[in-house]
Amino acid sequence: MSRPFPELDGEIQQATLLRRFTAMIYDGFLVVAIWMCTGFAAVALNDGEAVSGALFQTALFLITFAFFAYFWVRLGQTLGMQVWRLRIQTAEGCHISPRQALIRFMTAILSFGCFGLGFFWMLFSPEKNTWHDAFSETQIVLLPKPKK
């Protein structure tokens, strides 16, 4: 059973493509930092020798998924999404499941790999969904500004 998010004052609307991209840039910096720390640790464990190969690439992939899945499932927001007041949720306004996070992550790779077509699809979709929104049955919403 998914947990609903607390009710907010103000209207929640779908996030724009530009806002999504800016949050992705923030998160991209964090992911690169995590990759660098992982690489430093791997080199240290390998007696100072460079690390490469399928095992290392798989580790980076799983660590990247773990980063996004943790924030999406637990909080509904990555750090970049928090800055831009975005939240990932189900259509009913609940936290997403780990299964939805996996589907979203894998489909987002496909969306990006097709020259970003899966992202730009939201400009033409009547529901304003990207491919990964549609396949994972999730949505990214813009949260109202907090009251001071």
Automatic annotation (TrEMBL):
The chain crosses the membrane at residues 21-45, 51-73, 105-124. It is found in: Cell membrane. The keyword Chloroplast does not apply. Pfam families: RDD (PF06271). The keyword Transferase does not apply. InterPro entries: Pra-immunoreactive (IPR051791), RDD (IPR010432). Residues 15-136 form the RDD domain. Keywords: Cell membrane, Membrane, Transmembrane, Transmembrane helix. GO terms for cellular component: plasma membrane. It is a multi-pass membrane protein. This is RDD family protein.
